[in-house]
Amino acid sequence: MKKLLSFGLLLAAFATVKAQTAPTWSADVASIIYNKCSNCHHAGAIGPFPLMSYQDAFVQAAGIEGSVSDGKMPPWPPDPAYRRYAHERLLETDEKTKILDWIAAGAPEGDANTAPVPPVFTDGWAIASPDISIKMPDYFSEAVSSDLYKCFAIPTGITEDRYIKSIEVIPGNRSVVHHVLIFQDPSGDCLALDAADPNPGYTNYGGAGSNNAKLVGGWVPGSTTYTLPNGFGIKLKANSALVLQVHYPAGTVGTLDSTRVNIKFTDGTNTREVFVAPILNHLVTMTNGPLNIPANEVKVFEEEFTLPIKATVFTVSPHMHLIGRNVKAYAVPPTGDTIKLINIRDWNFGWQGAYQFQYAQTIPEGTVIRGTATYDNTVNNPYNPSNPPQDVNVGEATTDEMMITYFSYSYYQPGDENILMDSTLLTTSVPQQVANKLNVFFYPNPATNNVFIDIPNDNDAYTLTLYNQMGQAVLSSRLQNDGWFDIATLPAGLYIADVRNAKGIYTQKLLKY
Ligand code: HEC
User: Fold this and answer.
1) What pLDDT digit, counting tens, does each position of 393-450 carry?
2) Ligand 1 centroid vs 47 CA: distance in angstroms?
3) How far apart are CA 258 and CA 124, in angstroms?
4) What's the rounded Cα separation, in Å, for the pair 362 and 339?
5) Which one of 9, 53, 133, 381 has the lowest number of neighbouring Cβ atoms within 10 Å?
6) Is the CB of 165 under 6 A from ligand 1?
7) Nearest-5° angle of CA 494, CA 174, CA 145?
8) What is the rounded CA–CA span in Å between residue 426 and residue 413?
9) In 10 A of CB 472, how many CB atoms?
């Protein structure tokens, strides 16, 4: 009897240890999936199945294992070892380990009562009262067996120049809209192209179909509303049309879409203009062009441009077509270290983006900005649209190629380097913070009115600071006990919560909705 009892105790002890070591859905994994996957994986979104509950994740465990271990999900083309960005769709190493360990342990649920609640996705507008809100006509996709790039030109109705502060794209049908590029065209060219096509919109692959059309923004699934830091704006010219280039993947034929763009202008008259320009491009800055890739060849192209001003740079967006395989851009200042800008090692045309630096990036006058890209026109390239391969030349069509890197930037003013676009990585940029990561726990996250903050030690005092996406501290407070914290008055959005004292720091994204 005694023996049996101690064996039973031992077993119980073993079970506890095991339960503590294997991650569970409720304690460890749900919050990761809800933060990093559910925005694309919920009913009606672009992901092929929902990840909104334990059951959803359990039945997809094998697929999740594969796509998380090879880095395919979440989709995030830039190499994080080269450069980190604001608003990344990326799993940190410890998050990846937790998901994989959880699956290896049989994907246990843990205590369902303590599981975080799934996020709520609404069709509401992030820009509540836009200055302009334009919607393309109802359009039924005609993409049968190949992808379709359809442009819709819509007049803005503005009669004087204004400055864009925020752009929000609301796809009419999240399950078929793969990306949207937004151009402005003051010339009337694109309106004429649209009028000439009997169906809504007109087909154009590389851009908007006119050299007078200039890129102002873009959207891919998973991106948030794009907002410039306070005081900055992209000029929208009087009487211009906006052109929405929408990518509908093959097989979406017959599905209805009507995508909307909401725009908020800056209010002050002292707006600093932000330029969106193809600083590196095959037409002007290529040093070993022309961009022609004969069939069955792999070729590397180089571009360089010497910056005539000191610039404050917000985003970088490379653009190639289908046979581009990798692209890199970096800046070599007259003195000092090379500035790494972007490195995409496995180019995928379907996942393009405007990547925002975590802090506005200063680039000195006289810096040489360099780009290098590889094009693979052989049968080894899984994205090669032609088999056998055909000669590929520079141009706008699907089967032509491009090598462009857009930058959004402004003239530098002192202090610009402190403009924080996202503070996810505060822990690696401030030395004393590397020392100790505190064990702080926020619940629920996302939260509406109140968030419970569990601090490591009730006898110590901590400071809590919440930063908004502009990097401004919006709330600062002293914490001495675990407890509920009122966030009811904060506007909805993504915040960085920072808890610290002399013993260490903790930072965490907090979504208020
Ligand atoms: C930005 C949107 C987005 C995010 C974020 C995202 N997915 Fe996906 N996921 C997709 C799309 C779209 C597909 C369909 C395949 C494709 O287009 O690449 C997909 C496919 C998958 C598949 C099927 C694999 C395959 O080879 O087709 C799995 C499994 C998956 N996602 C898991 C995840 C997990 C786990 C996360 C979070 C760690 C995640 N996804 C985050 C958009 C997303």
Assistant:
1) 998 776 789 999 999 999 999 999 888 886 444 333 222 223 356 778 888 888 888 9
2) 6
3) 15
4) 9
5) 9
6) no
7) 140
8) 23
9) 12
